[in-house]
Amino acid sequence: MSDTPALLVKQLTVNYDKVPVLWDIHFSIPAGNTVGVIGPNGAGKSTLLKAILQMIDPLSGKVEFFGLPFKKARARIAYVPQRSSVDWDFPITTLEVVMMGLYGRLGLFAWCGSKEKKEALNALDMVGMSSFADRQISQLSGGQQQRVFIARALLQDADLYFMDEPFAGVDMATEQSIMQLLRDLKAKGKTLFIVHHDLNTVEAYFDWVIMLNTSLVACGPVKEVWTELALSETYGRGSFVLDEAVKLSLRRTSGFK
Amino acid sequence: MIATLAASPYRDVDFFSFFGVMFQRLFQAIQGNLPLKDLASDEIQMLVLIGLCFSSALIGAFLVLKKMTMMANALCHTILLGIVLAFLLLKPLFLEEGLSNSFLSLKILIVASFLSGLLTTLLTQLLVHVAKVQEDASIGLVFTSLFALGVVLVTLYTKNVHIGTEAIMGNIDALDKDDLSLVGAVALMNLVAFFFFFRGFTTSTFDPLFAGSIGLPVSFLNYFIMVLTAATCIAAFRAVGVLLVLTFFVGPPLMARLLTDKLRTMILLSFVLPAIGSIFSVALSRHILVVYQTPVSTSGLVVCVFALMYLLLLLFAPKKGVITQILKKKAVFQQGNSR
Amino acid sequence: MSYSLLDFFTDPVLRAPTLGSIFMCISSSLVGVIVVIRKRSLLGEALSHASYPGIALGVTLLAAFFTPSSDGFALAVLGCAFISSLLGMLLIDLLQKRFRVKDDAALCFVLSSFFGLGVLIASRIQTTHALWYKQVQAFLYGQTATMRDIHILIYAALLVFTCVTLGLLYREIQILTFDRSFGQSIGINSKFVETAVLLLTVLAIVIGIRSVGVVMMAGMLIAPALASRQLTHTLKHMFIVSGVIGAISGFCGNYFSVMIPFYLKAEKLSLPTGPMILLTASFLCLLALLFAPQRGLITRMLRVLKFKRNCQLENILKALWKEEKKEGVLLQEVASSQNLSSFKTWLRMRKLLSKGWLSIENHRFILSDKGEKKAREVVRLHRLWELYLVHLGHCKDKVHASAEEMEHVLTPELEKQLTDFLRNPMHDPHDQPIPHKEGKE
Lengths: 257, 339, 441
Known about the structure:
The structure holds three protein chains of three kinds.
Chain A: E1 7-16, E2 19-29, E3 34-38, H1 45-52, E4 60-65, H2 70-73, E5 77-80, H3 94-99, H4 103-106, H5 114-126, H6 142-155, E6 160-164, H7 172-187, E7 191-195, H8 202-205, E8 208-213, E9 215-221, H9 222-225, H10 228-235, H11 240-253
Parallel strand pairs in A: 3-7, 3-8, 5-6, 6-7
Antiparallel strand pairs in A: 1-2, 1-4, 8-9
Chain B: H1 15-31, H2 41-65, H3 69-90, H4 99-103, H5 106-130, H6 135-158, H7 161-169, H8 177-206, H9 208-213, H10 218-236, H11 241-259, H12 263-291, H13 298-316, H14 322-337
Helix pairs in contact in B: 1-12, 2-8, 2-10, 2-11, 2-12, 3-5, 3-6, 3-10, 3-11, 5-6, 5-10, 6-7, 7-11, 8-10, 11-12, 11-13, 12-13
Chain C: H1 7-10, H2 15-37, H3 41-50, H4 52-65, H5 72-97, H6 103-124, H7 130-141, H8 149-178, H9 180-185, H10 190-212, H11 217-231, H12 235-263, H13 273-291, H14 297-323, H15 331-338, H16 342-354, E1 358-361, E2 364-367, H17 369-392, H18 400-406, H19 412-421
Antiparallel strand pairs in C: 1-2
Helix pairs in contact in C: 2-8, 2-10, 2-11, 2-12, 3-5, 3-6, 3-11, 4-5, 4-6, 4-7, 5-6, 5-10, 7-10, 8-10, 10-11, 10-13, 11-12, 11-13, 12-13, 14-17, 15-16, 17-18
């Protein structure tokens, strides 16, 4: 395995309207690790994912995936968005959602035949949802919806997986089965980058942790970095002045008093 | 201008005989005995409406699913300004032609759709992102102002207010074969667009974040749908006017959604149901004219028929209708009691 | 013939449309403030289109029993429009809440269906009662030309009613708009107030459609309110400014719709009043968006330029202080070190001189005591900020750029918080001394 980190983020700064969301983020993740991203709400965790995946334009910064820029590395990346970002009333079946995982490879126009359908059914099987293949997605529970999303990501056959709060609003049984899936992925050498909301499960689920509160508090192996001090800085008020100051700076530079 | 010839086969028919005449002539057409120039005005109306239903089924389904119907409404209003501007810009190319025909030639249509789509989205985005105005107020302000501008320009230029009111209600009785070819061209354009971009539209509508991450051109697809909407609006301009075309976009998908959970079926039903409704409305309009000696607006009638269909489906749709559900519960209850 | 401004208020043909429009527009502008604050502008669009079948039906029924010039006509039609719009509101609510139709789809469905119904009903009298049909059409784009003095009284009364209702409910509206749960906790019956506001909205729309028209009414709810939002912060002032803008729009709309055909020598042409009123209101709104004292785009741009200039001034002071040249510096040296053109540098130095931060001797600029104090303050902020960032975990080689930006922004309050947080530090990350607050070192 080469030394190129799976993910390298350099000096990433992101503003959202007048509010600073991410400030000078800089870290490097070696391949093969399962990374948890934690921090208070509004601290920019989802924004970090979106900025890394080029869905938001950052003010400054560079991101590299296995040493390559995003466009070149796209085939090796899979993204699982938050469940709430989707309208589950959409008239589509479970299988059709999973098949979307192939569209990155196939593009807009290439035909989707029986071979592709089989692959999708396979992925559904891996998450234990094959009996739901023809079910309309609004009939699924939260945990089932999450598993469908993961099946779609599995189909993308990526090396680096980004997930936004995969365990939010999900029952314990589903959480365990998702975790098992993630461990299987890790065993295959995949790198997982997961925005997480539950402090209690960090040590059990992740090798590495990134602690974020508008700026980077800590990044490293859980054993080294998961300390009382780091936690209090992430969830504490030390960066209060930073937020205020950057907000003020944004106001002055857009012409408000 | 009015294509109702003295010898129109529908001249004195009531509602039921209407269909008799219609099927007779349909049969003739299939046999090849009905040349295009012999089409009666009622038939032209039906065909234009059916063409419109086709385009709107494709576009409307996605507009509703994307929650972009208000943007479509805004676009429908801006179309008027787009048409006027396109006409003024391209006028040097139309020296001899009469006013109304050249209004709607294909070149004007294309230029007008682009202009309207561009103006609407550009100004709204400007207000929201640069001037930091709230989104609902931005949309509302932009399209009403641009519409006002359109009305003023049309009235001043044509020195006639009636074209302004015709713009929003259409003049379905004045449809002729040129309108038919226009609607047909737009229907074909939509068919081709959706055939190629169906996957793109579906994915970016259902999960725009995911679609962006795998490299689908989400913003381009959004803008593309707006352009298609604008083109369909313009095609509907003369038939039902720009405001009533909104019912074609919104009503059928809502109807279809009550009947199915599959996207493709939903789009198909979004075409079939209003098509039936349109034929029904033209027949009904003819009936009212003949039996009660009262001419009514066929386009208004079409909209009312759609609304009625939707309300009926809300109540009686097989699985989701309110009354159906109440009856089912009663049946289950009674079954439980009789044990 | 040409009319003077005064004619619009006195001439028997013109005064009813003018005054009537002014009263109508003030009503809608006032209620528009609430609609815009609650972000329900597009509801106004749906409700105004929903009033159209009521108008058509009202006129059609009246056509059967009355002559076109009846006095009760206006009120009767408004009543029908009100009921129709209200039914539209109920249907929207039903669709959204009971049938789980998405908000925008429900609005657009009601908007277009009701409008279509109106078109259908109006077509019934299109050929049989042409004069009545024209009355209906007048409500599409707004046409005040046929209004008479009785209408002035009617619309004045409706305006008074609106103002009184708003006045009575003012406190409740203010609280519920800005903090609903607080309002409920102190016992305000939010259901009642919100229903009242909704009814008032329908009323305002129905009042306004005679002059602005069904199609463009939504814009008249939005434009004056939006303009007032740019110009003021308090709810009370928003109402006043919005009302004034509404009144101006109402007048100008009528003025232009009469005078423009005159200027174009096409006197037979009748321009509908609605578009003119709306365009006036939108234009005023645009002016407000650009030039409003606090939030206007142009004002903001000018403020940014001023801020940038300020930064340049402070940077020059800093540079002079750091160099510690007793004999002062030449203009050219400053220009090259700050990377500015000679002209700009000269302007800045002049400004610094006028503020008393510099003095000039033999073409050389020297920091005055005041200037030194100012420079020290800026440097203090710079070094405090660097230390703070390092404390947060940033590398000390990378904090300089941010400090260059923040030194011009930090307020005395933030400075105090930093000093407290860092426990009154003496040195920055590069081991340079942090100038003390009072100027001692």
